Amino acid sequence: MNYQFVISLLIVVAIAAALLLMRMFIFRVLHRLAQKTDNVIDDLLLEGLEGPSALLIIALALYISIRLSELPETYMVYAVKGM
To answer: Model pTM?
Structure first.
């Protein structure tokens, strides 16, 4: 069995989970701060950033796992270009 693939997959999942937890905490704090203001723009801005931030976290987790993996250099070049 190819253990390198399993290890890379576990790294992606662990990094994504950690970053998503950080994102959840940060957005919770920002929502509390936004509720204290009368301005609607900050509420709209936070709502607009929630979706793209999740996609950014997934892309970042994939990038980090590719860099940490022990793939041959030729595969790493193609993987990073594909990101």
So the answer is: 0.71
> Dihedral through CA 28, CA 83, CA 13, CA 2, nearest 10?
180
| HEC-encoded secondary structure of 37-79 | CCCCHHHHHHHHHHHHHHHHHHHHHHHHHHHHCCCCHHHHHHH
For residue 67, what are the contacts with CB-CB under 8 A and spacing of at least 6?
76, 80
Instruction: Tell me the pLDDT of the chain (83 aa) as tens digits.
Output: 567 778 778 888 888 899 999 999 999 999 999 888 888 898 899 999 988 998 998 888 888 877 777 777 777 777 777 76
